[in-house]
UniProtKB/TrEMBL annotation:
GO terms for molecular function: hydrolase activity. Signal peptide: none annotated. InterPro entries: AdoCbi_amidolase, CbiZ. It holds the Pfam family CbiZ. Coiled coil: none annotated. The lineage of its organism: Bacteria, Bacillati, Actinomycetota, Actinomycetes, Streptosporangiales. This is Adenosylcobinamide amidohydrolase. It comes from the Bacteria.
Length: 208
């Protein structure tokens, strides 16, 4: 993976985007509006938008600013140049973190979410081994649990924000691993990398 920061002018602001280049030979699972689901992808874009962002077509917007070819695109109002990076035994986690309004996943019915900023906590994770579909899904659960653990340890009353996005990338070559849970070999490593990256991001956000 090769990581670059790009910039563009939009809505009267100078905005950054984090572009992770993978190339062919990678499979990803993502909740992002562009390229979400499971399938072969060549890049991941985490693009910053203005705090008052109001477009209702995020996939179309991301297509306008993304490189060609199959990829994953997500949006955030967090300060993208402050992204964090952590590793654990060849797994990596990159995160952009903003915690203006943390949210409980199981909030009472009818709760109005005041969070208008998209993708406040975005995570891009990689590992060096292929995974089955089930294991890929399991890594999403594991990474989300590690994120929530970091938030609670830091004193934030919530499981995340209402528009968090995630992408996990794994190579396609080799015999796929069947497990991605927090006690599995690779799931535990992804969890530690994510936990570290989120803690770093929280500290940066608190100092901003």
């Amino acid at each position: 993976m090769r990581v670059t920061l790009t910039h563009r002018h939009e809505d009267g602001a100078h905005l950054a985007a984090l572009l992770c280049h993978f190339g062919p030979g990678w499979r990803m699972i993502s909740s992002a509006p562009l390229g979400g689901g499971i399938g072969p992808r060549h890049w991941v874009l985490n693009a910053q938008v203005v705090p008052h962002y109001s477009r209702m077509d995020p996939a179309a917007h991301l297509t306008e600013i993304s490189p060609p070819g199959p990829g994953v695109g997500m949006l955030t109002a967090a300060h993208v140049p402050a992204y964090t990076h952590a590793t654990d035994h060849d797994t990596t986690a990159l995160a952009t973190v903003g915690l203006r309004i943390p949210t409980w996943a199981a909030a009472p019915a009818g709760t109005v979410d005041p969070e208008l900023q998209p993708g406040t906590i975005n995570i891009i994770a990689t590992l060096p081994v292929p995974l089955t579909d089930a294991a890929l899904v399991n890594t999403v659960i594991t990474i989300t649990e590690a994120k929530t653990q970091a938030l609670l340890e830091s004193g934030y009353p919530g499981t995340g924000t209402a528009s968090d996005a995630i992408c996990v990338a794994a190579p396609t070559h080799g015999s796929p691993e069947s497990f991605g849970g927090p006690r599995s070999r690779w799931g535990s490593r992804l969890a530690r990398a994510t936990h570290n990256a989120i803690h770093q991001g929280i500290r940066k956000w608190e100092m901003s």
